[in-house]
What we know:
Elements: H1 11-19, H2 22-41, E1 50-54, H3 60-67, E2 71-76, H4 79-91, E3 98-102, E4 116-122, H5 131-138, E5 142-153, H6 155-164, H7 168-172, H8 191-200, E6 204-211, H9 229-239, E7 251-257
Parallel strand pairs: 1-2, 1-4, 2-3, 4-5
Antiparallel strand pairs: 5-7, 6-7
Amino acid sequence: MRKDRNFDDIADKFAENIYGSDKGNIRQTIVWEDLNRILSQMDGNSKSLTILDAGGGLAQMSQKLAELGHKVILCDVSNEMLNLAKQEIANKGLLEQYQFIHAPVQELHHHLDEQVDLILFHAVMEWLAEPEDALKKLMTHLKPQGMASVMFYNHHGLVMKNVVCGNIPHVLQGMPHRKRFKLQPQQGLVPKDVYQWLEECDLTICGKSGIRCFHDYVGFTQYVGDYTPEQLLELEQQLCRTEPYLSLGRYIHVWVQK
């Protein structure tokens, strides 16, 4: 039976693999560009917002928002991840701007009394047994006219990656989850399904970006041309919001308004 994933057992490994790499840099760069678009739309550069970082783990993105003066509620089911986040947040002198909640996102109604201006829900749904239910419960905490930033592991990107690697039988078998890969999400989500769930919450889609539309598909053979990580990042930035590349990203970032 599929169940929600808790990263207490591999919190340190998660931090190193997800953020301490070129792919982590691409992810943070693209999402931060999008968050600046969101802030501009919300007039967040001239007023303080209350932000819910739901399933936020190490709070990499919300720390940047806290540095701009916004208040952040950080929620995660993993106590180890929260402790790592607290250490980094304290080192940056941002503790006063944070509230910490150790709970699953589905149980936030037990902890929150008021709705928030902005919700971050990044790379969480693919680890949940019932992602649609979690997303819809979470969006009830959003104020009218508030915005949400949602990033999810893309089913289409997972298919493409397996094909590029020659894992054709695995794709034909429906890509069953391989438990030996602890950092491989339990499932990829079909973008049109996620967009529909958001629209059913009375949310309007404002924009989308593909995260790592090219990075994961570059081959490692003698025939690959020379390029630098900076050039690859530039290419990602140029084309990540353009179809068909957007829909082939390993993750998709979509932002919406209530």
